[in-house]
């Protein structure tokens, strides 16, 4: 029974409904280490693969988990089933380069230039 308290069985639900896991993680593991595990196990055939840990967000119990928190700190009593598997949702953020390009290109397209002679 103490093994259940020392680790948590987690599966990660991707946006398309497919899963990574389940895999056992110690309650002392950081959210950042969960993200690293997701990156290493990301299905190769998926088009929207994240490049870094910063591209991922993990949601559990309706809350976005912070990288510096541990699995134990993020556990939700509502989602915690003794001996069961906890499902956490994974969201891939849009790469910052694409966001910057959109912001930079929009103002240029909407500018009006007037010349007074």
UniProtKB/TrEMBL annotation:
Instruction: State where it is primarily located.
Output: membrane
Tell me where in this chain the Ubiquitin-like domain is found. 8-74
Topology of the protein relative to the lipid bilayer: Lipid-anchor
Asked if Cell division is a keyword of the record, the answer is no
| Top-rank lineage group of the source organism | Eukaryota
* Gene3D superfamilies associated with the record: Phosphatidylinositol 3-kinase Catalytic Subunit, Chain A, domain 1
| Residues in coiled coil | none
Instruction: Give a GO cellular-component term.
Output: plasma membrane
Mitochondrion keyword on record: no
**What compartments host this protein?**
Cell membrane
- Annotated Pfam families: Rad60-SLD_2
**Record key words, sorted:** Cell membrane, Lipoprotein, Membrane, Methylation, Palmitate, Prenylation
Q: What does this protein do?
A: May serve as docking site to facilitate the association of other proteins to the plasma membrane.
The identity of this protein, by name, is Membrane-anchored ubiquitin-fold protein
Species for this entry: Helianthus annuus
Lineage runs: Eukaryota, Viridiplantae, Streptophyta, Embryophyta, Tracheophyta
């Amino acid at each position: 029974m103490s093994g259940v308290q020392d680790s948590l069985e987690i599966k990660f639900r991707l946006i398309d409904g497919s899963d990574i896991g389940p895999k056992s993680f110690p309650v002392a593991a950081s959210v950042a280490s969960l993200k690293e595990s997701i990156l290493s196990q990301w299905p190769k055939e998926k088009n929207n693969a994240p490049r870094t840990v910063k591209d991922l967000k993990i949601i559990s119990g309706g809350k976005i988990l912070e990288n510096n928190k541990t699995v134990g700190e993020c556990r939700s009593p509502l989602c915690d089933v003794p001996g069961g598997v906890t499902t956490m949702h994974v969201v891939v953020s849009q790469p910052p380069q694409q966001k910057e390009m959109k912001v930079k290109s929009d103002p240029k397209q909407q500018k009006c230039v007037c010349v007074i002679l």
